[in-house]
Each structure stands twice: as C-alpha cells, then as structure tokens.
Amino acid sequence: MPSLRPLLWSAALAVTLLVGCGGGSGSSAGATAVTETSPAAAPRPHAASRAGDWTRFGYDAAKSNDAPRGISAARVAKLSERRVKLAGTVDSSPIYLSNVRVRGHNRPLLVMTTTYGKTLGVDAVTGATLWTFTPGAYRRVAGSAQITTATPVADPSDRYVYAASPDGVIHKLRVSNGSQVRSGHWPVSITRNASHEKIASSLNLDGRNVLVTTGGYIGDAPPYQGKVVSIDRISGRIRHVFNSLCSNRRRIINPSTCSAQESAIWGRAGAVVDPATHKVYAASSNGPWNGSTNWGDSVLEFSPGVGRFLRHWTPSNQRQLEASDTDVGSTSPALLPAPDGGPGASFLLQGGKDAQLHLLSLGSSLFGVTGAAGRRLGGEVQDMPVVGHTDVFTAPAVLHRKGLTEAFVATGGGTAGYQLSGGRLHVMWQNGTAGTSPVLAGGLLWVYNPNGGLNVYNPASGKVIRRLPAPSGHWNSPIVAGRRVYLPSGNSNDHATSGVLSIYR
Hints:
By secondary structure, this protein is mostly beta strands.
C-alpha cells in the first residue's frame, strides 16, 4: 500500500466517505430551426432553476448528485415500474424541468440524449415523446461505434437545453419544441476529428459558460487529446480551450498536429465546478506527462470558465499508469465541502482504474504546484485500495451538512462505506452489489445495478430499503424528481437505435 502523508486539517474535521467498488445541423419533429438571439438570463449556476428541477447529470454544477427533494421510505414501498420505449439508447441520465411550456401547455418535461445524438423531450407524467431533435449526422453514425454518452444541461431560463451529438457538435435546443437555435456561433463544433474524439462525459454549466470535455473511443485509437472547452451560452462563442496534451495551444486543434496522443477526459461527471470559488476541476487519463505541456493521468484545476490552468495533481507512478492503460481519469474528481460549513471544497476524492481512492487537500501545497506548470509528482494526503480492488468508473454522490460530509460511489465490485477520521480512511460497511453513479434524493440513496435492478439504500447504514426491477444496462443512472424515479437502460456498446425508460411512481 502506498505511504500515507500527514493530513493538514482541523482536528474537528469529520468526513464520512461511503464508496463503492467496480467498474452540425439538425431537425426537430414538427418544428424547424429559426434564427434567434437568446436573451441573457441571470445565472443561477449551482441550483436547479426551480425547486424540484434536475437540470444536469449530478444535479448541480459541483456534480454532487444530491437533491434535497425525494421520495419517503414509506412511499418507496408503493412504487411500481412502467417501461416506455425510446427512439434510442440513453446510456447516461435524463434531466427534469418541473414546469415548462411545451407544445402550448405547461408540463413537467424530461430531456435526454441517445447514443447517436437524438435528443428527446418526454412528458414526465405519461412518458410520451413530445419532440425529437435529430442531428444532421444521425443517418451517417447510427449503428456505428461513433457515439455519445453525454447528459444534456438546461439553461437557467428553462427555455433552452444544450446537448451533444457524435459528430462533435454542441446544440442549443428550444425546450418548447426541440428546434435548434441558429444564432451567433450556435451550433458549436468542439473537435476537428469527431471520429476519434468522443464526447462521453456529461455537460455542465456555470454562469455564462457551458463546459464540455472530450476523450477517445474504446481501444484508445489516436489521434485524439482530452480537452476542456467553455462555450458562451448566449453567443455560442468558444471562450477557452485547454488541451491536456499540447496544452500551450489554447484552441481547438487537429489532434494529429500534436506530437502527443490520448489523455482522454471521460469521467461521467466531466468538468465539475466549486460552488464558492467557481474553479473548475477535471481528470485526464493515460497519456504522456512532462510537467509543462503534457498532462496525462492528472487531476487539473482551472480558474472560473477554464480561463487559466492553475494546479495539478499527478501520481508519482504516472509513467507506470500510462504504460498499463490504468486511467486516473476513469472518474471525475468529487468535491468534498468543508465540514464546518465554510465556503468551497476542502478536499477532492479521486478514484481511477488503479482501484485506489486518492484524497487530495485543496487547502495546502500538497494538491500540486502553484502556476500553470510544474514537475512535481505525488502529494496526495492518502492512497487507499478500494474494497474489492475494482476499477472506479462512476461519479460519487456527496452529501454535505454542517459538521458532516458523506460521499457515495457504487461500481462493479460492490458498495462500501468509509469514514475519514484522524487523517485516515476506515471501512464502515460494505456489500457486493454493483452499481453505476448513485444519487441522493430526500435522504435516500438510489443505485442502479447494471446487471438489472434499482436498489434503494439507507445511506447511514447501507441497509437495503427496496430492490426495484429494472433492465440491464451500462452507465445509465437514475434521477428522482416530481415524486417519480426515472431510469433509462441499455448499453451504448450494443449500437442499438432504440431503448427503454423505466418510470417508477
């Protein structure tokens, strides 16, 4: 086991970690795209636009996966499942807008993107598809290995959503009918080689910035580089680009023109945002590292809007990880807020394909170096093997209350609970049930088992409250909104052009 370094924190800190192990142009049905200048809305980046909304993967800009509203344990016992057919596989999660104008009526709406880029507006009560946006590249990519697994993100006005398609384009769509906005620079291409650079991670939004990351496809077939892109949500102008390789080139580049390859940014949460500082965090995967322009297998810190690269954490065995395809960035950093209720995150929790949990301190020099480049390796507070010794591919759920911070992760090897006290992680509880990215809603923990089934846990004890039926899947994860639970299923690697949505009510 790697050595433990002293933890620089208050003796009053008590953080509980519950962690699991494992594994262009377009058209809209019934509507046409028209030119429009979208109004600037007052940004509300860290909470849903309305109480009860679930505007992105992870619920908020920090990707905490913690929603204050949910379903009581008593009502969980009464839930029944209804399965709805979809025009594609949604290998991610939907978003939910509680009261929006669609087809002339106010109603709750689900929005989700299929693997080949169709974005669907679905009535959250009946399950009926109200509109479909089909990107221009759909016929060319449908049935192929060129896919996206990105969850869309809603505009704070609730009038628009931003969605990805496999041709490397980000679209701004009207919530009212799914038609595409064509004004300013919308739609926006964020790659010059979409057949090699994949938009796998969920989209995010902070103020005027839509945040998108790119990686590569299964098999690590270059040329590609991981990148973080910020787009002005009003104009569609690309504001900033950070390439994890050839990082001195702050623009969209043809990946074949960089001498270094790979270093995908593909964790489920993509780029996460600290709600107090608005700093942006992401994690890169296997690729070269030189401490100046190449940042493979590193956790990366940026100023708001990805304007400047600030610091990094790179494990001391980075070269070994690169050689063995053991991605640090198989998951995104999880922000652990200060337990005393202070602003911003105190720590990052980083998993990876090395089956380790890495605890990073943001309040000390141990996180990395000052400035945009540095050759320092290591510096983590603690490394600890994941129970089950299994790769981590999921996004944790983080529950923060004054004096207590809890984090939950479920992956292919099981589920476990750890408590962080006295500078060390200690196992609290564990089980062998697999899961994808979990969500907290109203004090209950919801974890989808990709082998089939949806488990509802008491997060304090790990006790199963109920196991609900569900089809098998891959990276799909649920949301809990409007007194219902919504869970898409299916595997993007099956290359199917249809799918299923389970609605529990």
